[in-house]
Amino acid sequence: MNAPVLVINCGSSSIKYALIDSDPEAPRLAGLAERLGSPDARLKGKNSSGESFTQPLPDADHTQALNAILERMEGRVPGAVGHRIVHGGEHFTQAALIDDSVINAIETTAALAPLHNPANLAGVAATQSVFPTLPQVAVFDTAFHQTMPPRAYRYALPESLYAEHGIRRYGFHGTSHAFVSQRAGELSTRGAGGWLTAHLGNGCSTSAVFNNQSLDTSMGLTPLEGLVMGTRSGDVDPGLHAHLHRQLGWTLDKIDSVLNKESGLLGLSGLTNDMREIEEAAEQGHPTAQLAMEVFCYRIAKSLAALSCALPQLDGVIFTGGIGENSPIVRRNVLALLPHFGFALDDSANEATIRGKEGCLDSDGHQGPQVWVIPTDEEGRIAMETRHCLEARL
Ligand code: ADP
Q: What are the alphabetically sorted keywords of the record (predicted)?
């Protein structure tokens, strides 16, 4: 299929979009409709010459926003729509052409992602009404991790919780871990091999990928498990919930909200969830920012070390996401905690590889596991999986 793919990531009050050509060099049209359903609703984006625009869409709903997006396509006609769907449960191991049975299966997994899947499905319905003849493909955040073996995905809980209620580890950020590990395999002499990937954005997760298959990852049943994130705690003692309830009288909703929205870098620093501001405050000697940076990096290193157990061989580590792509300090701190892995970081390559650059950060002639920065491209991966899904059906 040569026509462009329209990639849609639909939240409860937002639609992120990108129109992606089959030629990777062709300019992308991309943007965000946000605050939908409110008087401040608006569409922000860039046209093909790279100029930014903001268009007010007062009180627009998802369908009206999609119609406004359609008008920004500059005459380019999409051949298909690829939807990011957060949770595919165990049902979806790859992208799927959307029909009634796929919609039913996504609805069935909504209990596992009550905030995300219903919003993603609302986006599918709105897109179908605006583009009734286009094929629509669902691409799942969880699907890449469906190759994890039971020892990685099972919790040590009663079997019935898994068998009857699907309580297991699923993992997220699958399109990102898949994209960067495949790209490292193309760029590096090591090939597909064994890679540890660290996606560090507002949400953060690590993954162990061997031969393009995920063998383990740090997120679990929900995206709260694992690393310290912008506002999410990551791993805590599972006894914490009962303790907070019994000792402080907190409700489950309050605990959920604190762990998801008030913890992580924000909770530790008491200042911000933004890594740039944490770096600045730490540099100026602010003790809680220094602590937030230390805990953040230590937990990444600990997770990478743990995930190395999943790999038959270690060819390298890959940093990606807003922090992984732009923070030489975080990369240096994390690698300094893993001296026994034999990485050899070139400091000047580390400092220079920011703002969308990809590259290997190794010192010259180094033979051990490599260090890579690969800017992620989740939209590009969704477009590619959409094309593959449709081509496989021809
Ligand atoms: P999302 O997960 O929402 O896609 P991003 O991948 O854009 O988020 O990552 C956002 C994070 O990246 C923020 O913590 C931000 O501070 C951080 N970040 C962006 N640029 C830099 C930079 N130059 N140095 C350090 N951190 C950065």
A: ATP-binding, Cytoplasm, Kinase, Magnesium, Metal-binding, Nucleotide-binding, Transferase
Ligand 1 pocket member 230 (CB < 6 A): yes
Whole-number pLDDT of residue 2: 84
pLDDT at 115: 83
In sign, the C-alpha dihedral spanning 121, 126, 127, 133 is positive
Does the pLDDT of residue 394 top 80, yes or no? no
Q: What is the pTM of this model?
A: 0.96
Q: What is the pLDDT of residue 112?
A: 87
Looking at the structure, give the CATH architecture of the domain made up of residues 5-140.
Answer: 2-Layer Sandwich (3.30)
Pick the catalytic residue from 141, 216, 315, 377: 141
Which residue ranges make up each domain of the chain?
5-140, 189-378
pLDDT for 264 equals: 98
Active site residue 274: no
Measured from the CB, is residue 64 less than 6 Å from ligand 1?
A: no
275 lines ligand 1 (CB under 6 A): yes
Q: What is the pLDDT of residue 25?
A: 84
Q: How far does the centroid of ligand 1 lie from the alpha carbon of residue 363, in Å?
A: 26
Domains 5-140 and 189-378 share a fold: yes
CB of 119 shorter than 6 A to ligand 1: no
Domain 189-378 carries which CATH code?
3.30.420.40
Give the residue ranges of DSSP H helices in the chain. Answer: 62-70, 100-108, 117-130, 150-153, 159-165, 174-187, 240-248, 252-261, 264-269, 275-283, 287-307, 321-326, 328-336, 347-352, 378-392
Percent of the chain residues topping a pLDDT of 90: 93
Q: Alpha-carbon distance 365 to 362, whole Å?
A: 8
Distance 367 CA to ligand 1 centre (A): 31
Whether residue 204 has its Cβ less than 6 Å from ligand 1 = no
Q: Which of 274, 297, 323 to mutate to test the pocket of ligand 1 (most atoms within 8 A of CB)?
A: 323
